[in-house]
Amino acid sequence: MTEQVKFYQVGSFAVGNRLLPLEVRSIQSDPGRSNALTSGHRACQGCGEALGARYAVDAAMRGADGKLVAVNATGCLEVFSTPYPETSWQMPWLHSLFGNAPAVAAGVAAALRAKGREDIRVLAQGGDGGTVDIGFGCLSGMFERNDDVLYVCYDNEGYMNTGVQRSGATPPTALTQTTQAVGESPGNPFGTGKDVPRIAMAHEIPYVATATVADLHDLEAKVTRAMQLRGARYIHVLVPCPLGWGSASQDTLKVARAATQSGLFPVFEAERGEVSAVSQIRRQVPVEDYLRLQSRFAHLFAPGREEARAKLQARADRNIERYGLIGPHTEALPGPAEDNPAEDSPHEEGTP
Amino acid sequence: MRLQIEGSQAVARAVAACRPHVICAYPISPQTHIVESLSRIVKSGDLPGCEFLNVESEFAAMSVAIGASAAGARAYTATASQGLLFMVEAVYNAAGLGLPIVMTVANRAIGAPINIWNDHTDSMSQRDSGWIQLYAETNQEAADLHVQAFRIAEELSLPVMVCMDGFILTHAVEEVDVPSTEQVDAWLPPFEPRQVLDPDEPVSIGAMVGPEAYTEVRYLGHLRQMQALELIPQVAADFEAHFGRSSGGLVRPYRLEADGKPVETVVVALGSVLGTIKDVVDERRANGESIGVLGITSFRPFPMDQVREALAGVRRVVVLEKAFSIGIGGIVSSNLRAALDGLPLEIRTVVAGLGGRPITIASLHAMLDRAVGEGGGLEPLEFLDLDHDLIARELARQQTGRRSGPAAENILKDLGAVRATPF
Do B176 and B30 share a structural domain? Predict the structure, then answer.
């Protein structure tokens, strides 16, 4: 390894930075962190979900003064953390089914309320399949009842535990085992999929946020903010999956950062249905920089796929416009985003 | 307290008397009156320390109950028919996790064709789920069984399904001695969970178990049901000592002896139809026939020894069932056969009362006349009051061309109207 080690975290909010003043250090850098999802689990090398869950759960533990119960949907996080008879969870943890984590968590919250133990807080978590697809009815029910649950979705944009199949969170053009890179429009079709953070906002619940593992301090801060509130709260965390995305395991943070810095994955907070804060892009990158890091998009670089790439750039541009992702401190691409050549490409309709 | 009361209201009051911590509800006929009534009780402040959740599906209802029970709460829900089927994945999960949830099933048919009326197709479909299944004969028993169910469930860490016939019981108004909170407080111990989500003693519940231990975990579920065979009669006896009336237990023998000997014929059934059967049997006994009744209260666990003991020496058993396994026939009778293995008796299955078709005294007499008569008895599998002509006409329509259309709609057109009179 000849890669130069850079210490540019100094003065930033990057992870684990013990050179920062105590009060702004990450929870994960604290030797007294709860290690609720402790080491020794069976996640793949470079797993974004394991990383995201570690930060989210420890932040939630701190927000709950250590009195936290977790409910887990079936999925990678559940399987890699609890191979019988071992468990990585140093906290009360319940797994029931794939599609019912929000309802099970609502039941836990109701039980604690009935018993006057509202000092114990409830965290529910699942992957995108368990959240945006099979568990969606239960999730919406938990939202509309405003059950006192923080739900964290670790979104790796597909059913990775079952061997990489398409979910409602899989982006257009992505190769999965059920959206193969063959035919005239290879990969997942345009015009499909759902934007669950926005659907969550439509329930006007107290708190909705998005985050990625590229900015773990931001993830911690959002979990911390969510834990200050009561009622239904939702955090949607983009977690790259080296296996399913065909990215290098050491590139998990780089891929996640490219997702945010291209505008493909907007990072924001919303309270009671209104966007309250947005993480603006620091150094904008073209969508292609994000796509090139992942073999699931390799087919987009074959001859004649320029239009598909342009349509993906248009999706990013739409997010940039919708959330105001480019601001005075953004080091933007040459030319305003609105004038990007992708603008001339046909926009798909009804796509997030 | 003795009241003239609807079955659903009696059950709701009995459940409330058990002081559940969490009740989750999703409407489906004919169960809905139960949770409506509980909603009123909770909302009016008469059941402090209870949370009532209106959920978005039966799947969510059972899931909420799972979470609540795992957090140490006494959890209750009620459903029927399609609702029970919609929650099946969670039904099995609750049993596999060993969570002592109590659920009422207001028995109703399963579609298609959609039908809101009573039979046992719904709960019978869950006989292998790992839940204890108790079938109520009367509204008094339905109310009492719920009180017993919490005790059985919590002692064994197993969920209990109390099955009561939809409409026939749920919507019938009759006198019920409704268990009071004071009575239940003195009889039902507080819920002490075997496993609980507790930050002071964190445990992982619901871990993945591979081939190395899955069989053992499943076997324990079976073992607990075998323990229930001991516990259910004890709880029923203790209930009787405290409340002064007999309810529950494993089986209900009725007039199984004549002149000190086992009767020749026994009708076996579950649920409210036992009342009608007993009336029929009384009439036939009065005419000198050697006939009795065996009610099965606990279908899971299935009381093999008690059934065998009750039916030893009997010549003929007629199993009257409100459900059947398409492609083979009787469900209760197949279980019964296993219990009666090697005994020299004849077992006949009569499927009756599907989709709410009334089981009349006249029909039962006609069927039993044939069962005990000289004409060779009943076929191994029969359907009470089956309209053979109607079926023949539909089969003929299906012969006339490929696109004969939907069978159910054809039959309704053939009938001309939904028949309101008894068959």
Answer: yes
User: pTM for the full model?
Assistant: 0.94
Residues B191 and B96 in one domain: yes
Asked whether the beta carbons of residue B22 and residue A68 sit closer than 8 angstroms, the reply is: no
Domain that holds residue B406: 389-423
All residues of chain A having their beta carbon less than 8 Å from the beta carbon of residue B21 are 110-111, 114-115
List chain A residues with CB under 8 Å of B208: 78-79, 82-84
CA distance A83 to chain B (A): 5
User: Do residues B151 and B204 both lie within one domain?
Assistant: yes
Nearest to B51 among A71, A103, A114 (CB): A114
- Tell me, what CATH number does B205's domain have? 3.40.50.970
Considering only CB atoms, A108 lies closest to which of B68, B204, B212, namely B68
Question: Do residue B37 and residue B98 come from a single domain?
Answer: yes
For the stretch B45-86, pLDDT in tens is: 999 999 999 999 999 999 999 999 999 999 999 999 999 999
Structural domain count, chain B: 3
- Indicate the residue type of B142: A
CB contact under 8 A, A93 and B210: no
Interface of A with B (CB under 8 A): 66-69, 71-72, 78-79, 82-85, 87, 89-97, 99-100, 103-116, 120, 137-138, 140-141, 144-145
Residues B317-372 have pLDDT tens digits of 999 999 999 999 999 999 999 999 999 999 999 999 999 999 999 999 999 999 99
List domains and CATH numbers for chain A: 22-344 (3.40.50.970)
